[in-house]
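A reminder from the course coordinator: this example appears on the midterm review sheet, so study it carefully.

Given structure:
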């Protein structure tokens, strides 16, 4: 005796039904784009940015890029070039050390002059007397008396005031003048102050002022 599934008609119907299922629509899935590491076999580091260089960093700042400090010798060499220029009565020796604008760190409100204007006035002053070339540079100032201050070191008792235009990485150099006068000629104030601004591996003169006791 045959069961219903063994009859020819039913068997044919079952085959047709199965074929319809096999040929019906299928869901096609595209593969995800391969990660670069998977295609090359080489680990790929995530893109990262390098922190901007700084002169100093706090302990909790994490990854920082520190610039090599400018040596004290380089600052003292710049001071020497200033007095050499006075002695030669010629600004060419320090023009490369000047910033685009020069601030009068002595004046109220810190008057700013363009570089060319500062050079013009300084050259006129140098040419006004022969006494600059008659006085040896070593008698104009003493290197051991020069003081160099960071921004946070200013404004304390016994120290110069902090210029309003002074940036976090600037330096203020105080230079007592050993011979401010020669005979009847007044050469300098009793003290010269230079505001120095970092420019790559060197400093440029951002501010200049001469202090005369009141």
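Designed residues:
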């Amino acid at each position: 005796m045959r069961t219903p599934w063994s009859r020819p008609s039913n068997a044919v119907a079952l085959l047709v039904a199965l074929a319809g299922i096999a040929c019906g629509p299928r869901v096609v899935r595209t593969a995800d784009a391969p990660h670069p590491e998977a295609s090359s076999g080489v680990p790929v580091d995530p893109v990262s940015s390098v922190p901007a260089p700084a002169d100093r960093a706090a302990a909790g700042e994490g990854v920082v890029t520190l610039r090599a400090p400018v040596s004290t010798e380089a600052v003292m060499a710049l001071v020497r070039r200033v007095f050499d220029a006075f002695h030669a009565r010629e600004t060419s020796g320090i023009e490369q050390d000047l910033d685009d604008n020069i601030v009068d760190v002595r004046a109220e409100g810190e008057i700013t002059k363009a570089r060319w204007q500062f050079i013009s006035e300084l050259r006129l002053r140098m040419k006004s007397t022969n006494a600059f070339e008659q006085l040896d540079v070593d008698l104009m100032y003493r290197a051991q008396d020069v003081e160099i201050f960071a921004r946070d070191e200013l404004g304390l008792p016994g120290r110069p005031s902090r210029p309003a235009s002074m940036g976090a990485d600037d330096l203020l150099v105080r230079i007592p003048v050993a011979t401010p006068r020669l005979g009847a000629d007044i050469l300098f104030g009793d003290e010269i102050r230079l505001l120095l601004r970092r420019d790559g591996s060197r400093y440029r003169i951002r501010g200049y002022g001469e202090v005369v006791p009141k």
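The first strand starts at residue 53 and ends at 54. Confidence is low (pLDDT under 50) at residues 1-23, 25-31.
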